[in-house]
């Protein structure tokens, strides 16, 4: 009996490992696990970490602008920022020019996190060369952007 003859009709369908979306999703979970030890030492979550990284890149930005960079809605981002403020890593204040806007800024403690955890480099842990890592990062970002463009065009 050939291998094809042994397959049931249900098994001829793509399996979980055949879905690119699952590969990306599960890779995201693996990144979270890889960062966990470092982030636990800093006392923050991965989502809090990426908010801080975005503020290292551009400090003093509105909650709206930060949310757009992180692909997070305000109602998701606000509790994250509130916790980071409680931890002493960021400061939130109303924009004097437009009271509707809230500006988020790093504190000195938030900037110091770069030295404590910012050197964590997962290129080696990923088992990819630096070039492969950059190529994959760009491909995944392009995939994300294409999917968002599709959703916006059809939504």
UniProtKB/TrEMBL annotation:
<dbReference type="InterPro" id="IPR055166">
    <property type="entry name" value="Transc_reg_Sar_Rot_HTH"/>
</dbReference>
<protein>
    <submittedName>
        <fullName>MarR family transcriptional regulator</fullName>
    </submittedName>
</protein>
<dbReference type="GO" id="GO:0005737">
    <property type="term" value="C:cytoplasm"/>
</dbReference>
<keyword id="KW-0804">Transcription</keyword>
<feature type="domain" description="HTH marR-type">
    <location>
        <begin position="17"/>
        <end position="145"/>
    </location>
</feature>
<dbReference type="InterPro" id="IPR000835">
    <property type="entry name" value="HTH_MarR-typ"/>
</dbReference>
<keyword id="KW-0963">Cytoplasm</keyword>
<dbReference type="GO" id="GO:0003677">
    <property type="term" value="F:DNA binding"/>
</dbReference>
<dbReference type="InterPro" id="IPR039422">
    <property type="entry name" value="MarR/SlyA-like"/>
</dbReference>
<dbReference type="GO" id="GO:0006950">
    <property type="term" value="P:response to stress"/>
</dbReference>
<keyword id="KW-0238">DNA-binding</keyword>
<dbReference type="Pfam" id="PF22381">
    <property type="entry name" value="Staph_reg_Sar_Rot"/>
</dbReference>
<dbReference type="InterPro" id="IPR036390">
    <property type="entry name" value="WH_DNA-bd_sf"/>
</dbReference>
<dbReference type="GO" id="GO:0003700">
    <property type="term" value="F:DNA-binding transcription factor activity"/>
</dbReference>
<keyword id="KW-0805">Transcription regulation</keyword>
<dbReference type="InterPro" id="IPR036388">
    <property type="entry name" value="WH-like_DNA-bd_sf"/>
</dbReference>
